[in-house]
Design goal:
The protein contains 6 helices and no strands. Helix 1 runs antiparallel to helix 2 and helix 5 runs antiparallel to helix 6. The N and C termini lie far apart (77 Å). The chain has 134 residues and is mainly α.
Length: 134
């Protein structure tokens, strides 16, 4: 937030959140009496500020890093956990990590089957109303 006012920082945060400069401007500044065209122009002016651009770049990088979770990164974490569990002779934890990897890669699918009395399949019930003929 170096060199930014509180309103500028709020604008940056809101812009990252919404992706809309005009919306961020409306929420960060007092724009209640401004026309839409004025808000758009002012938002563009804020975006053109070098300090704002630099702050947005930092926030975007943080956002990418925070959300950079992939199947590969999760697989690597599970493999590390499995390796550690094996080294510590924690077979249950190793199996859990292996199962986590298998689920992550779609090799195991949890099934939730609903059954009726004594495990019999459910039979659909139709709600039909029959009205007397006139």
């Amino acid at each position: 937030m170096a060199g930014l006012t509180q309103k500028q920082e709020k604008f940056c945060q809101l812009f990252i959140e919404t992706g809309n400069a005009s919306e961020a401007y409306r929420k960060a500044y007092d724009a209640s009496r401004m026309k839409a065209a004025t808000i758009n122009r002012k938002a563009k002016e804020v975006l053109d500020n070098g300090k704002i651009t630099a702050r947005l770049n930092v926030l975007r990088a943080e956002h990418r890093q925070r959300h950079d979770v992939t199947v590969d990164s999760l697989t690597e974490e599970l493999e590390q956990a499995r390796t550690l569990a094996l080294a510590e002779k924690q077979s249950s934890a190793a199996v859990s990590a292996s199962m986590g990897k298998a689920k992550l890669h779609g090799l195991i699918v949890d099934k939730n089957e609903h059954t009726g009395k004594d495990g019999a399949p459910l039979v659909p019930v139709l709600n039909v109303t029959i009205s007397p003929e006139s």
